[in-house]
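To: structure subgroup
Subject: Chain for Friday's discussion

All,

I'm putting the inputs and outputs inline so they're searchable in the archive.
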Amino acid sequence: MRLLLLATCLCLTVPASLQLPSWTLLSGEQRTIEKCLRSYGGLNEENAGRLERYTQWSDSSEELPCFTQCYLNDLFEFYHDQAGFDERRIRQHFGDAVFEACKERLKLGADQKESSCEHAYAGFHCIVSLENDPFILIEKMPNVTRSAKSAMKKCLQQVDQVEWSRIGDYAQFPLTEPIPCFTRCFISQMQLFDERTRRWRLPAMRQSLGVPLVGAHTAGCAQRRARNPCATIYQQFNCYVVAV
């Protein structure tokens, strides 16, 4: 589940002079945004700018006080303005890794009987901030064992942090590896490929990573070649991943 408004940009029916970048709204989202802006004078030029700044997620306070609580309470089932965040639904929508990382901000304090504007913002800020976190994306990978995830995380820590944002690009199966040599690193860590004999340990890879699928047509994967060993490993591995 992606939080299209707050994670990226806004798409509202406003005068041309206030038009914001277009994006797909969640069902009922425009009505909710308009409702939550009423106490601030509705959507005018000043509030359009405040909403843009809101998506930059200040760590200290929200640009529009109590906007988050209004937005969440009106639009989503995982939050209620009295009970706060629902653990089961947070885990369902965002995954166990996100909940565990944010649980201190999501739960009510010992002296709190109901949620507050500050609590809603702090919890939601944490969720959105982690939505594209590379280590969370690795943690949420399906059919991947704990040891395989650990190897990926270790390899990610060995590359420049500037590269980390590209981890999500792997899900698109691009022809060129998004983070050079990342695949060779974790494949080597897990000993899934013997570079001396140039043989893949396919049963072990299937057990650890869930690929290639049983019965998939992979006959030509091991014959793929690229400009260097890292690129070759990626090309061959990617072939096993997408094989059907």
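Points worth raising on Friday:
Residues 4-131 form a domain with the Recoverin; domain 1 fold (CATH 1.10.238).
Residues 15 and 21 are 13 Å apart (CA to CA).

D.
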